[in-house]
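Team,

Forwarding the record for the chain on the shared tracking sheet. I've put the sequence and predicted structure together so nobody has to dig through attachments.
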Amino acid sequence: MALKNNDLPKPVQHWFTSNIGALLARGVKTRPQLIRQQHSRNKDQLSLFVAFCDPASPRLYEFTAATHEAFTSIELTALLDNPEAYTDSLVSGDRFFVCTNGQRDACCAIYGMRVYAELTRQCGDAAWQTTHLGGHRFAATLASLPTGAVYGQLEPVDVTGLIHAHKAGELLLPKLRGLSSLDSVSQWADIALRERSGHAQSGRYLLQERDSQDGVERRVFLDSHDNSRHEIFLKPVSETIEFQASCGEGNRKTRKLYQVQSPDTD
């Protein structure tokens, strides 16, 4: 959606489309976002971030230029084929992207701007505004890169804990909606496993297997710290829930719920 409703120069839009297509052809799931910084000290400098949110080896690149057109010389698949050539562009630490898209939903502008202001106060240039992240009923929503952690129902009071957790290589579990590298059911399983174990390290659990039988979803995670395997079963409950999808009146949706069944550890 962000690449359809924008005023980027046509050559830049074509560059995005072709590069995203090339990544998809390689099996790389993509989600383009448009970002900005109200407080930036470099008003004449543009930034392009490219994140690979593999839990085992997340990495984030930042490219800067004076014009959007300058970015079209970059081939994103080259970051897969020859990452050593781009080590100078690697970013140290996390960057935080808060949805403040009031055109999509007023909640994101109202609550997102409050969180963005506090992030800016505490971590400066690591804080960014971004277009729609999805789930505006969870506003304020935020994505951290390169971990790929997506948070919801954030308030300014949560910002200090969020920053401290990520500096320690951990996730803020009470506000975690899921890791973007996982499918929605695996996100449920990952969070259930973390709540059960109490381990918040961002790259600790790696998805190894996923399947479904008789409606029950099965996920197997490897603990990268001790090589133990954790099996999680998720059974959909019979009923769905109806919820207010956004700040707009009458905008209601339904969704499926899952129940965790006796997770076992080998």
